[in-house]
């Protein structure tokens, strides 16, 4: 594509330089599109995240030509999910021998961002103050008084998106807020890494255990422990993030045993509320991607994959706007494509959140999955975006809903 008009700083201005924004910038630069990426953070930076990239997300990275980043970041393989639910255990593996990867966000985001910069994207460190869109382009006003103007604006600035708020696209606060905590632990010498992501379901909270790389690049065994909890549980723990997480870990016997002799590998972080609603994901020449476009909950571990998927969809939309200039048609196609990607994820995620709140039924469902590994594997295909929810089958849904008596 040609050089931008002198009235524009770039053809595309991206607010947010995390995984979604950097992946989009890299893909656009490979097409010859000029891009400016704005982020307030000083990279590399930590981010509260479960850090488990499911097989579909690994494939998306490979499709962006970033397959080597997985190994460069010390991505730890895992072959499925292991549930511990009030004394009931179920292990499920990904179909066809696929593996996910535990990727430390500090390393992953910086690697993708560096690739975008090497490809020619301009990186600007600043806080976005507000955004606006007009028939000819879009403008980001920065907190230092600068204005950046592009023919297209993409909001990839996370759950508290300034772009979404400025454009009046906020969908309102969630009815039942959930919060997250995350910390890394270096396991005692000789301890083995889990070969599946472990999910420990507690009372109104879940604890996730994901194998990741050590911050110093050593080969030590390190796990990320993330907690998702209701507001009441989060508030009841009190204190600093590490104290809140320590209290939840101490109440989980299997995880407490795994962490005996372990030492923290970095600070504990927290964030929330988790649910983000957007009234729309496009307005004129502006698009929202990743968490800025909204998400239901982090319970399924699909945040990074959704960030990559929506970035890929936005590449097509941006290309259409810059190509033929039919903004409304391009925005409509983006809305439809994202809705298809997001629909099954939202239904499954909300179902799992509600299930986690009901221990009696949760134990029955986990018991069913434990007795039928093939059913568990098929459910993981739906969660991973490899199969639509409709392909799961009414019979399977009925068996899952009825559950089984825990042994």
Compile the SSE list and pairings:
Elements: E1 10-15, H1 19-30, E2 35-39, E3 52-53, H2 55-63, H3 67-72, E4 76-78, E5 80-85, E6 88-93, E7 100-102, H4 105-118, E8 122-125, E9 128-133, E10 138-142, E11 147-155, H5 162-166, E12 178-186, E13 197-201, E14 205-212, E15 222-230, H6 231-237, H7 241-250, H8 253-258, E16 263-264, E17 269-271, E18 282-283, E19 286-288, H9 303-324, H10 327-356, H11 359-371, H12 373-383, H13 394-402
Parallel strand pairs: 1-2, 1-11, 2-8, 5-13, 11-19
Antiparallel strand pairs: 3-7, 4-7, 5-6, 9-10, 10-11, 12-15, 12-16, 12-17, 13-14, 14-15, 18-19
Helix pairs in contact: 1-4, 1-9, 2-9, 9-10, 11-13
How does this structure look, described?
- There is one protein chain.
- The protein has 407 residues and is α+β, with helices and mostly antiparallel strands.
- It has 3 domains: 10-51 and 104-174 and 275-348, FAD/NAD(P)-binding domain, CATH 3.50.50; 178-271, 2-Layer Sandwich (D-Amino Acid Oxidase, Chain A, domain 2), CATH 3.30.9.100; 357-402, no CATH class.
- It has 13 helices and 19 strands.
- Strands 1, 2, 8, 9, 10, 11, 18 and 19 form an 8-stranded mixed β-sheet that branches.
- Helix 1 (19-30) runs parallel beside helix 4 and helix 1 runs parallel beside helix 9.
- It starts with 9 loop residues before the first strand and ends in a 5-residue tail after the last helix.
């Amino acid at each position: 594509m040609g050089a931008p008009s002198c009235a524009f700083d770039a053809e595309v201005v991206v607010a947010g330089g995390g995984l979604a924004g950097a992946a989009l910038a890299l893909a656009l630069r490979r097409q010859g599109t000029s891009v400016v990426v704005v982020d307030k953070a000083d990279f590399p930076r930590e981010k509260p995240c479960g850090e488990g990239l499911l097989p579909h997300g690994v494939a998306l990275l490979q499709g962006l030509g970033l397959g080597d980043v997985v190994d460069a970041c010390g991505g730890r393989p895992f072959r499925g999910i292991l549930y511990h639910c009030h004394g009931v255990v179920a292990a499920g593996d990904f179909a066809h021998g696929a593996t996910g990867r535990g990727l430390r966000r500090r390393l992953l985001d910086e690697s993708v961002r560096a690739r975008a910069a090497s490809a020619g994207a301009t990186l600007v460190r600043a806080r976005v103050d507000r955004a606006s869109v007009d028939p000819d382009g879009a403008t980001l006003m920065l907190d230092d008084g600068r204005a950046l103007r592009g023919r297209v604006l993409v909001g990839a600035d996370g759950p508290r998106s300034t772009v979404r708020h400025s454009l009046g696209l906020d969908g309102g606060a969630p009815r039942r807020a959930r919060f997250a905590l995350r910390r890394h632990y270096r396991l005692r010498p000789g301890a083995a890494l889990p070969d599946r992501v472990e999910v420990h379901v507690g009372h109104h909270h879940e604890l996730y255990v994901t194998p990741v790389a050590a911050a110093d690049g050593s080969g030590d065994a390190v796990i990320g422990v993330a907690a998702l909890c209701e507001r009441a549980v989060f508030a009841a723990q009190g204190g600093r993030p590490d104290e809140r997480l320590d209290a939840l870990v101490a109440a989980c016997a299997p995880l407490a045993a795994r962490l005996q002799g372990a030492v923290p590998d970095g600070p504990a972080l927290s964030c929330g509320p988790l649910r983000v609603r957007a009234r729309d994901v496009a307005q004129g020449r502006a698009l929202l991607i990743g968490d800025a476009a909204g998400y239901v909950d982090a319970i399924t571990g699909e945040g990074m994959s959704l960030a990559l998927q929506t970035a890929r969809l936005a590449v097509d939309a941006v290309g259409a706007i810059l190509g033929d200039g039919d903004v409304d048609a391009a925005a409509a196609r983006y809305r439809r494509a994202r809705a298809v990607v997001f629909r099954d994820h939202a239904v499954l995620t909300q179902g799992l959140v509600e299930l986690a709140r009901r221990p009696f039924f949760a134990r029955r469902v986990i018991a069913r999955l434990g007795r039928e590994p093939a059913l568990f594997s098929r459910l993981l295909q739906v969660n991973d975006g490899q199969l639509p929810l409709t392909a799961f089958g009414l019979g399977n849904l009925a068996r899952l809903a009825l559950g089984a008596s825990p042994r």
